[in-house]
Design brief:
CATH topology of the largest domain: Trna Endonuclease, Chain: A, domain 1
Strand order of the largest sheet: 1-2-3-4-5-11-12
CATH class of the largest domain: Alpha Beta
Oligomer: single chain
Order of helices and strands: HEEEEEHHEEEHEHEHHEEHEEHH
Keywords: Coiled coil
CATH architecture of the largest domain: 3-Layer(aba) Sandwich
Helix content: 40-55%
Largest sheet: 7 strands, antiparallel
Number of strands: 14
Distance between the termini: 97 Å
């Protein structure tokens, strides 16, 4: 027992030193090793080692009984490399300054990986279709946009696709505006792009979806409740109260073990979940079941557009001092008259007068037509 204890202690100390985190404290009291993480919430790791079994306990409150978070058989001899890798993963999660944010990033990557597999499956069915991931493109003003996916047809960009996972509604305006800005500005520069698609998972409101529809962005939505059900099969809870710090900690720990499956293949984790199977593949398959059908339908429409026609004309004029004179219309003749006003005008004031009169005239004609 003493030999096993010393091996574990030395390995744990080595893993802690590599993290270079001054907030970690270690106390030794055989057969226990207690690691004070000094995180928020306060967390402690209790490591109990005997000749055959290593148990790691997590306590988020020192006054409460610690929960056993992993158990594995040391087979009478501790493999230092395996143990070190496992402890480093545990410690990185435990000392993370923002569990919820890191968990959200991991969930977003799993979502992107699932979408990528769907797109590759689509490309295999169409010989002239290719899929590219994470490209940086510039718009007409030279601003750079990082795009999740580009779908090429005959080497020309035809579809741009963005995916976003939204846990808290307070982040919706920021994430939503970035999606709209990227997908709108890139299409303005590259007319070969027939469609922009946003796959939105989480707490997206009707208002945000309406804003994207206004910019002609096709949306596929997966509510947080349905997305959560996929992960609940593996006891990972992703729908928690914003002030809850314990749930995202435990969920992040479980998800990290799934993402590092090769390091934990013989481990029994919380809730007696064994990772000898392939939970990540199961998770991605469940996500794909939710979005494959609507995504395939949109992609087919984009690469084989039938009866495409002009729906709206938008003209923007910018002056040197920052004035914007714009026209949104569905009438080609109205757009032509707008451009004629510009061509026949020598100064901005008279241009504004002409355009205002023309708009009033057009509005009156619409009213007269309606009254008839």
């Amino acid at each position: 027992m003493r030999g096993c204890y010393e091996e574990v202690r030395e390995t744990l100390e080595e893993a802690i030193s590599k993290l270079n985190n001054k907030n970690i404290r270690i106390n030794k009291d055989p057969p226990w090793i207690i690691v004070s993480l000094r995180s928020q919430p306060k967390a402690y790791l209790y490591v109990n080692c005997n000749k055959e079994i290593l148990k790691v306990f997590l306590c988020l409150n020192k006054e409460k009984t610690p929960d056993c978070i992993l158990v594995y058989d040391t087979k009478s001899e501790v493999n230092k490399e395996v143990l070190s890798n496992r402890l480093k993963i545990l410690l990185k999660v435990a000392t993370n300054s923002n569990y919820a944010s890191t968990l959200g990033e991991d969930l977003g990557r799993i979502l992107e990986d699932s979408i990528h597999e769907i797109l590759l499956e689509f490309s295999k069915k169409h010989k002239n279709v290719k899929v590219s991931r994470e490209e940086k493109w510039k718009d007409r003003d030279g601003d750079e946009h990082k795009l999740d996916f580009i779908i090429y047809v005959n080497n020309k960009p035809v579809v741009v696709l963005e995916s976003k996972f939204l846990r808290y509604k307070k982040h919706m305006r920021d994430k939503g505006s970035r999606v709209i800005d990227s997908l709108t500005e890139i299409r303005k520069r590259y007319p070969s792009i027939a469609m922009a698609i946003a796959i939105l998972v989480g707490n997206w409101t009707k208002g945000s979806l309406k804003a994207m529809d206004h910019k002609k962005i096709k949306t596929i939505t997966l509510p947080l409740e349905k997305f959560s059900e996929i992960f609940k099969k593996f006891k990972i809870e992703i729908n928690w109260d914003e002030k809850d710090r314990v749930t995202p900690f435990l969920s992040l720990l479980k998800l990290k073990m799934i993402l590092n499956k090769e390091e934990f293949s013989d481990v029994v984790l919380l809730d007696n979940i064994s990772y000898t199977s392939d939970p990540l593949t199961n998770i991605k398959e469940d996500i794909k079941k939710q979005i494959s059908k609507p995504l395939f339908k949109l992609l087919d429409e984009a690469i084989n557009p039938d009866n495409e026609k002009i729906e709206k004309i938008n003209i923007d004029i910018y002056t040197n001092i920052g004035r914007i004179i714009s026209l949104d219309t569905q009438n080609i003749n109205e757009a032509r008259m707008f451009l004629d006003c510009i061509a026949d005008t020598k100064n901005i004031s008279s241009l504004i007068d002409k355009i205002t009169k023309q708009k009033l005239k057009t509005q009156q004609e619409k009213i007269d037509k309606y009254l008839k």
